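Request: Not sure, any thoughts?
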Amino acid sequence: MARSIKKGPYVATALEQKVQSVNDGKAKKGVIKTWSRRSTIIPEFVGHTFAVHNGNKFIPVYVTEFMVGHKLGEFAPTRNFKGHSSKKVA
């Protein structure tokens, strides 16, 4: 179910403050570490690299304009498919 239009997109306040400080020049430009996979990508995030936690490690995600409106967690997979097991002939 989608979030209501009147509420607007969900963005963690701590994450929004980190991006704002980088955009204002108060913090150094670099990778922004976050655990907030549920945050929606907003236009202010474009051009930044986020290290999104997938439960095991941080996955670097470079945000482009085509990602706006999606969630950060969509670009940091939590499971790695290694293929179906093959039948072993002994």
Remarks:
- The chain has one helix and three strands.
- Strands lie at 31-34, 49-53, 58-62.
- The radius of gyration is 17 Å.
- The chain has a mean pLDDT of 92.
